[in-house]
Design goal:
The protein has 677 residues and is an alpha/beta fold. It is 42% helix and 14% strand. The strands form 4 sheets. Strands 1, 2, 3, 4, 6, 7, 9, 10, 11 and 12 form a 10-stranded mixed β-sheet that branches. The N terminus is likely disordered.
């Protein structure tokens, strides 16, 4: 990801989470009420409430029309009008309620936020039952039911100042469901400010004409009397990765300084491209709903995934019920999907499902989903990552073998089996990265077969382990292809696909353009680059150990092995502190080690150390679900360094890197014949 995607407000969060009060009023309690009267969709009400709960300084509750006319707004700083039906909400408020809301904003200087139908309600639209608190009117109302889906939008310069987290992302996407098409009210003073404009052309239903939505405002702000009003034509509260826009809008409406939000919720690129619900997609949605009711367990699980992928508006409500399905795989699929959708309203359902689950393995997985769902709120971030647990994915580079301490085929095969058997015995779902075309490795396929038959996933580490910084782009791409030529057919024979790539020496490019080109090339090959947070000089220890074995120096081999695990633990301690200082929590670590004699012999001690520190072993897929891995790589130097340091360079520069990084002892360097790290 390019440095231009540096997210200033996110950086502020990362660097100041422990001192939130430094934002002045940002830390003061702020009282929010979400209208729940007739015309307010119950699901929209709940989504608005849940979005507000992202901000730990907000206290949020629902409020009815009866409470409003009884003076309930006196205990509120901002009122939120959710999606549903704007005219029906106006009717439910009645004249007395309308008078209270208008006084609340215009005279008392409080704030109002309107989401979709709420934007209709707050607008100044002739011939429509609205509150006339915002200097914009809805047009083409005869085609109001024009369609819905995930629409593209572009932030304006003012929008990027308001939402700096969107800088560098270009076109973004938000859930839209028949929101108003707004233009300035006739003679309106003051004018409003547009923060984002629609890009998609939505004309799917009701004979709606084409060309009406592109360029129309999506997010807007305006002063209104002594108060402030924020409108969203779309549904940020229903858009995973953008729900934080709602509490940001609330803070603005209350004249509060913006608060930083966690990277677990600030994920502008989480949702994919445009998805408009044309007739074919509506039919597909209906088929999924039928499958949930009448399909087999496999069909129900697939329908859950498909509803989520198409961003079905009602999908979470359908999926929630599958937490109580008779089939454990369906229950788990529903839990994971609701987590992906950030449907925090499902927490009570997920808690009940996890508590009542009888199958031990499924129960553990459901509890994990529950902890991660709860961790979407910044207040849940603490030591040990989401839910207070430490997790690590172990990756093993330079397969089939390096620093083996033996050159005999029997010795190399035995060493490989010890390493693989050790990983299996420790329950470590490691991912191996293969150097596929080193000419001296005539036993390559036999050794890799040991890994594959044990069920481990293998990735590409180029053909001959060349550095990107020492060859041209074309030569490096050829090296990637050389690695593939060996791996793809081998994996296919074992029913596996090639998904991962690891840059040799962690050399990922010396410029933004180079990094982008490399990632694009890998994506074309169906490969994802595997980052590393726990980088280390284990390879130097391994070379020293191998040299000692080859020379028959048992004493030196013993010394190296005894020093190895304490060194790795010191590195864990350092990167845990680096993560907490930079991110405000401990990231799911990705550990880099190599396929060598040292790890074959010391793996049980290494695993015991990690368990003693509270780590659970997870897959690489699981580790990279941590939202920190979406942060930009801001390093363009020549070394191969941890992604924690790369994020630090992007967010704060060199000052973001903690001092005191543990180093390899000089005596180990000497035994390895290496001058420096």
């Amino acid at each position: 990801m390019a440095l231009r995607r540096l997210l200033p407000a996110l950086a502020t969060f990362l660097l100041n989470l422990s001192v939130l009060s430094a934002f002045g009023q940002a830390g003061a309690p702020l009282r929010v009420a979400v209208f729940n009267g007739n015309g307010a969709s119950p699901s929209c009400v709940r989504m608005a409430v849940e979005a507000c709960r992202i901000d730990p300084t907000l206290t949020v509750r629902e409020i009815s029309a009866a409470e409003i006319v009884s003076g309930g707004l006196r205990e509120v700083d901002v009122v939120v009008f959710p999606g549903g039906g704007g005219g029906r909400q106006r009717t439910d408020l009645g004249d007395a309620g309308v008078e209270e809301v208008r006084r609340f904003v215009l005279e008392e200087g409080r704030g109002a936020v309107g989401l979709c139908a709420g934007a209709y309600l707050l607008s100044d639209t002739p011939g429509y039952a609205c509150l006339r608190l915002f200097p914009a009117r809805a047009v083409d109302r005869e085609h109001d039911e024009r369609g819905h889906g995930l629409i593209a939008f572009d932030p304006t310069p003012a929008g990027l100042d308001f939402l700096p987290e969107l800088r560098g992302w270009g076109t973004c996407h938000m859930v839209y469901y028949e929101g108003p098409l707004l233009e300035p009210s006739e003679g309106a003073i003051p004018r409003y400010e547009v923060l984002a404009s629609m890009k998609s052309d939505v004309h799917l239903e009701n004979d709606a004409p084409a060309g009406m939505t592109p360029g129309r405002p999506l997010l807007l702000t305006a002063e209104s009397g002594r108060g402030r009003v924020f409108l969203s034509v779309g549904h940020p509260e229903a858009t995973p990765g953008l729900r934080w826009i709602v509490p940001r809008a609330v803070r603005w409406a209350a004249r509060r300084r913006p608060a930083p939000y966690a990277p677990t919720v600030v994920r502008p690129g989480l949702v994919g491209g445009e998805i408009l619900f044309d007739a074919a997609r509506r039919a597909s949605e209906s088929a999924c709903q039928q499958a949930l009711m009448y399909g087999s367990a496999g069909e129900r699980a697939e329908a859950v995934r498909n509803l989520a992928a198409m961003r079905s508006w009602d999908g979470p409500l359908w999926i929630r019920g599958l937490l109580r399905d008779a089939d454990p795989e369906v229950r788990l699929s529903a839990a994971r999907t609701l987590l992906d959708l950030e449907w925090t309203a499902a927490e009570p359902d997920l808690k009940a499902a996890a508590t009542s689950e009888k199958d031990a393995e499924t129960k553990a997985a459901l509890m994990d989903c529950l902890e991660r769902l709860r961790a979407l709120a910044p207040a849940a971030i603490g030591k040990g990552g989401a839910g207070g647990r430490r997790e690590v994915a172990v990756t093993v580079d330079d397969l089939p073998l390096v620093s083996a301490g033996t050159s005999s085929p029997e010795g190399r095969l035995g060493l490989t089996r010890r390493l693989v058997d050790g990983l299996k015995a420790e329950g470590i779902p490691a991912t191996g990265f293969v150097v596929g075309a080193r000419p001296h490795e005539t036993d390559r396929e036999a050794l890799l077969k040991v890994w594959l038959e044990a069920g481990f996933e293998l990735g590409n580490h180029t053909g001959t382990h060349v550095s990107r910084h020492r060859v041209s782009a074309g030569e490096y791409e050829a090296e990637v292809l050389r690695g593939e030529e060996v791996l793809r057919p081998l994996l296919a024979r074992h029913g596996k696909a090639l998904r991962w790539f690891r840059h040799p020496m962690l050399h990922t490019g010396r410029s933004v353009e180079d990094k982008r080109a490399l990632e694009a090339f890998l994506a074309q090959r169906g490969l994802r680059s595997a980052p590393v947070t726990h980088d280390n000089s284990e390879w130097i220890f391994a070379r020293a150990y191998s040299n000692a074995l080859e020379q028959g120096d048992a004493e030196s081999a013993r010394r190296v092995r005894e020093a190895y695990v304490p060194y790795m633990e010191a590195r864990f301690d350092y990167f845990e502190r680096q993560s907490a200082a930079l991110l405000g929590y401990e990231v799911r670590q990705v550990l880099l080690v190599h396929a060598n004699a040292l790890n074959a012999d010391a793996l049980s001690d290494l695993a015991a150390m990690m368990r003693r520190r509270g780590y659970t072993f997870v897959s690489l897929d699981r580790a990279l679900e941590d939202p920190a891995y979406a942060l930009p790589d801001g390093y363009f130097g020549g070394a191969g360094i941890s992604w924690l340091h790369r994020w630090a360079f992007a967010l704060k520069g060199r000052t973001g890197i903690l001092p005191g990084e543990p180093r390899c002892p000089d005596w180990v360097l000497g035994l390895a014949g290496v001058e420096s790290e």
